[in-house]
Amino acid sequence: MKFRHSEERKQLQEERCFDEMTLADGGIRPVYGKIARWLAATPAELLASRRSHAELLFRRIGITFSVYGEKDAGERLIPFDIIPRVMLRSEWALLEAGLIQRVKALNLFLADVYSRQEIIKAERIPADLVLRNPQFRREMLGVRAPHDIFVHIAGIDVVRTGEDDFYVLEDNVRTPSGVSYMLENREVMMRLAPDLFAEHRVAPVENYPDALLASLRSVSPPAASGEPTIAVLTPGRFNSAYYEHSFLADKLGVELVEGRDLFVEDDIVYMRTTQGAKRVDVIYRRIDDDFLDPAVFRADSVIGARGLMRAYQAGNVTLANAVGTGIADDKAIYTYMPDIIDFYLGEKAILKNVPTWRCREPEALRYVLDNLADLVVKEVSGSGGYGMLVGPHATKAEREVFAAKLARDPDHFIAQPTLGLSTCPTFFDAGIAPRHVDLRPFVLTGADGVRVVPGGLTRVALIEKSLVVNSSQGGGTKDTWIVEDRIFDDVAPLQSQAQTA
Length: 501
Fold this sequence. Notes:
Low-confidence stretches: 1-14, 496-501
Number of strands: 22
């Protein structure tokens, strides 16, 4: 199979996008050498057949999602690309160290803002940015999270712009999703390309459920006796990520429950079972704060459990992640992460933040309004690729409408330059072409330490020139391989297939 879209690759190189497979002179990076030979020896028809087989497997196991608010909001597959993304262990080591540092700082920050608020007193972060944040939960003030851990599961979105240049795009610590796709992508790749997989020493991801279970067990409340009982709390089968909820409960070997399956008595949470009521010690919740407990948050919630917050405040149940972690997802808070890391750890951030303008600051707002055509503007509480403007790809009319919106409500927006996200080879019916990618590694924090699964979920923007990788916006996924450096130490760069295409 040849890399037929050589013009696309040339254009991306001219735009200074880092191509993870191809060198500037057209050679193939050693880490992708075996992938390049596999592609050269594999007919396009066979790749297409394997892709169709992958889609069939995903449909059979039910790995689908829904997009709310669309006329056609039925369940759909996230497109899967058959060409894996490959990174060296040495590259991953830098990412891993940075992720551990970042999540440690996030946990210290959350523990602080709900207790002594030392970072606010030190004026390292504006008080109103925290205290007036819609995700700041006053119900958590003075509440000590079990083992002082607020963020048990984090999905940190990272982009690459060069050989050793990694940036954190955003932090996802409320109810981060996507791990089921990481695990299923690996299983599918092992089934459809076993020979290629065997040629690489790929770090395993299949131990993620065991690592997650160990982390959740380690944070059970002191009142728990014996083996802690763990449950996954889902909004129900109509939720867009319901497949993942049921998948994780099955992999963990724990009960999948809805709010109606739980009740609270004497500040202790129980779940209804066929053998009667059973105490629950740890709840891996996939429900947003607003809907968790109708006695405390939204009174109209029918998917939460009344009294859950009372049991949590009494220290009788652990919620993973803790209530109130959403403040750390805020994109304005994100801009202070280098300061947060320095304040709590006394260290310089290993992973860089994307340079960001806070539109709440008058000078920054003026700059953003004057340069909308070159910037990406995001809602501070937005997610999923919604509520944002990609200036270079927007029309003049779209920019004018967004400028008016921005001028009316600047506090709720930040702006960033359009980073040249790295590209990876991606298979299409017309051939293979580079597409922009990001990476969501998953970081687990328990009383026994921090664990990072080697790899994560690579999301790919399937639309040409698009920088939006979200599945709700037409993005797809790839398997992510972390491989040992020594396999490629003596491998010289190969001639690019694009040169003969």
